Task: inverse folding
């Protein structure tokens, strides 16, 4: 009895010591997250349920006005503007993610099949542009797409734009900017997937009568799926909330949800509406992640392939 | 060119009507010949006489080997002709350097050699996974040299098994049939049949990563067999299994092949495995054939020193002089002494198989008699490894170490340090080239 009691005491003492040690290690990080993420997020959420004051600052009483405004209800009656911005954001996200995948897939494959010596250099070439500030790179695109540039003149000659109009501001320019900006985030995880590609599975598929196309679909694609889904998460979520690119390349008709939210905190001075927009973005993102997970599970044969 | 062939005619109808034996007889150029007696041939049949006679080998179509209870419908086995195969990877030495080979329908044929000898390359060329620099591949009378892998009626059991990890056992088995557009109902029937045949019925809905090595091995085999290929290729399929399971699956695989009568081409570096399983063995080294023959021929009459060493023979001695003056025997001078042989061949190396040698103990007083008795080599036991059924000896004869295996018949086994005679029969002495 006494022995067991002693043992139990010793054990619980060890547990206490261990958890104290654990707490000390985790505390700084936890504190950081609580102070700079959890509390501000809670504050932001609460702001969404307040009333907009005369100077754009949130005031009591609590109300759902900001959500009504987000849905398009203004003092001039209902307008579809905000919902169209949401729709545009979703569309731009899907379109640019698909395009990024289409561009990144062959690049990643090509790099993975290249000579061992060249691979780091090629990867570097993909990544290096993202070391420059995003704003500066976007200004670069403005110069490339402005009226009178070869690209704009080409588009003009093909009758795609009116004379003396640049290729920006436009939704096309935003898509282009998004694809360009997020390419490295897709190439890198895909490259990682391609690099550990089990070629014997591809050979097995060929041996079992799969044509090259079918061998790709049944033996290559499933192996790259984890990388692909990781890339989609890395691209789609930031693209959905993108601010700089639509701001600079999109103009009034290219606005995305990020710009809408930012405007409420700056120019339009309606913090509750901005907070409601932020909540909408969070919800949309979570739905997207959940859908990805389901898709990944299905394609991956029941195994977790993402997050 | 055969009238009906598997892969390029991938319609469901063609798979539902299973072809009768002989339906795929090649058009006229080759004589049809039954080779069912091929299996279980004795050493005296001397299959090795076909060596070198590769090009004009008859392309026989037969039902293959006799089987007791065929669980799956038998189809015509296919022959394989390989002519002048050359393959080089980059600037390295040739992986295959002029290989000519003819494999009979229904034969269990083994490619044996050390790693890097080109045996796997040869198998991959048969599968179509590797392109040839030069040469011709004919399977079942059809020239498939330029045919891509997915259009060859050949399936492979890969060394790593290469099962699709994202698919269930059932979907793995059905893969080949699905790619061939076999109707889903027939697919199900054939997969279920195969699962039962190979005794993995209960595993059918598992994911492959939940299975043991032996189970995966079976699934890899079943996945290839369910497609009923003309030829089954096996790339060291047992190398990842532990010894016990390995010998069990060796026997299963052998019985399976006899029951199906399918042509198997098997790659291994294990000479024991090759001898147990094969109808014929081709020994490869540095991309060229060293010898082709039955296991007994390869083991008992190796063509050269490489084959002999690879088959585990250690007793190879230089022949320094030979005396043909006697009409009934040839006297060979070796480092061990002078030996009398009956028909040793004309090689410069003497091969003494340890199990053909015998040890006789004798008292030291008789030790001077050794020049009287023919083929009695006086020596001293250096080492004895007792193995129960037999004992392995290392005996020093004239300063040279000789391996001897003595069966344990219950009599006396000489001890370390004993003076013994190593006795060899004149007819067991053979010589080989370098």
Result:
């Amino acid at each position: 009895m006494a022995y067991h009691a002693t043992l139990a005491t010793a054990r619980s003492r060890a547990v206490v010591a261990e958890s104290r040690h654990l707490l000390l290690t985790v505390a700084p990080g936890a504190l950081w997250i609580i102070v700079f993420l959890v509390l501000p997020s809670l504050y932001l959420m609460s702001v969404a349920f307040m009333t907009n004051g005369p100077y754009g600052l949130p005031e009591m009483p609590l109300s759902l006005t900001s959500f009504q405004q987000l849905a398009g209800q203004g003092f001039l009656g209902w307008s579809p503007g905000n919902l169209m911005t949401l729709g545009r954001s979703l569309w731009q996200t899907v379109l640019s993610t698909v395009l990024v995948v289409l561009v990144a897939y062959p690049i990643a494959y090509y790099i993975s099949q290249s000579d061992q010596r060249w691979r780091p250099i090629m990867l570097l070439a993909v990544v290096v542009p993202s070391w420059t500030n995003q704003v500066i790179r976007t200004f670069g695109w403005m110069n490339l797409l402005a009226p009178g540039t070869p690209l704009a003149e080409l588009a003009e000659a093909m009758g795609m734009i009116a004379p003396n109009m640049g290729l920006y501001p436009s939704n096309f320019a935003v898509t282009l900017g998004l694809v360009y900006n997020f390419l490295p985030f897709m190439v890198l995880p895909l490259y990682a997937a391609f690099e550990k590609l089990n070629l014997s599975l591809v050979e097995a598929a060929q041996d079992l009568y799969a044509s090259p196309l079918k061998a790709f679909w049944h033996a290559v694609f499933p192996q790259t799926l984890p990388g692909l889904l990781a890339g989609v998460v890395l691209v789609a979520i930031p693209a959905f909330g993108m601010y700089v690119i639509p701001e600079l390349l999109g103009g009034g008709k290219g606005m995305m949800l990020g710009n809408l939210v930012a405007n409420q905190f700056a120019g339009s001075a309606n913090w509750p509406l901005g907070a409601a927009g932020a909540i909408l973005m969070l919800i949309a993102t979570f739905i997207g992640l959940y859908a990805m997970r389901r898709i990944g599970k299905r394609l991956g044969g029941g195994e977790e392939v993402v997050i | 060119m055969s009238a009906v062939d598997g892969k390029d005619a991938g319609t469901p109808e063609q798979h539902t009507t299973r072809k009768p034996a002989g339906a795929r007889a090649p058009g006229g150029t080759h004589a049809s010949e039954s080779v069912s007696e091929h299996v279980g041939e004795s050493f005296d049949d001397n299959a090795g006489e076909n060596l070198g006679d590769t090009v004009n080998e008859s392309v026989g179509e037969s039902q293959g080997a006799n089987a007791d209870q065929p669980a799956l419908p038998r189809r015509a086995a296919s022959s394989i002709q390989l002519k002048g195969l050359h393959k080089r990877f980059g600037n390295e030495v040739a992986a295959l350097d002029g290989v000519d080979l003819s494999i009979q329908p229904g034969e269990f044929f083994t490619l044996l050699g050390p790693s890097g000898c080109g045996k796997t390359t040869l198998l991959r060329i048969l599968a179509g996974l590797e392109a040839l620099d030069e040469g011709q591949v004919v399977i079942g009378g059809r020239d498939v040299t330029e045919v891509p892998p997915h259009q060859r009626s050949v399936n492979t059991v890969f060394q790593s098994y290469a099962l699709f990890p994202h698919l269930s056992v059932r979907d793995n088995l059905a893969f080949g049939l699905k790619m061939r557009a076999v109707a889903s109902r027939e697919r199900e029937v054939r997969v279920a049949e195969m699962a039962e045949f190979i005794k993995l019925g209960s595993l059918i809905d598992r994911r492959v990563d939940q299975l043991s090595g032996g189970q995966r091995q079976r699934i890899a085999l079943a996945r290839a067999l369910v497609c009923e290929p003309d030829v089954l290729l096996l790339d060291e399929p047992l190398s990842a299994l532990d010894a016990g399971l390995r010998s069990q699956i060796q026997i299963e695989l052998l019985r399976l092949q006899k029951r199906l009568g399918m042509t198997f081409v098997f790659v291994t570096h294990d000479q024991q495995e090759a001898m147990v399983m094969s109808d014929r063995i081709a020994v490869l080294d540095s991309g060229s054939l060293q010898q082709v023959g039955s296991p007994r021929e390869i083991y008992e009459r190796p063509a050269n020193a490489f084959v002999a060493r690879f088959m585990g023979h250690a007793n190879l001695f230089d022949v320094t002089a030979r005396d043909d003056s006697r009409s009934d025997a040839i006297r060979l001078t070796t480092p061990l002494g002078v030996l009398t042989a009956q028909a040793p061949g004309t090689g410069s190396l003497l091969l003494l198989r340890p199990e053909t040698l015998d040890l006789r103990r004798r008292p030291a007083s008789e030790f001077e008699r050794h020049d009287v008795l023919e083929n009695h080599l006086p020596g001293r036991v250096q080492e004895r490894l007792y193995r129960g059924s037999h004992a392995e000896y290392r005996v020093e004869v004239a300063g040279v170490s000789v391996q001897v295996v003595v069966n344990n018949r219950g009599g006396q086994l000489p001890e370390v340090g004993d003076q013994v005679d190593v006795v060899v029969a004149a007819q067991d002495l053979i010589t080989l080239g370098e």
Notes: Chain A is about 75% helix and 5% strand. Chain A touches chain B at residues 198, 200-201, 203-212, 214-215, 218-219, 222, 299-303 (CB under 8 Å).
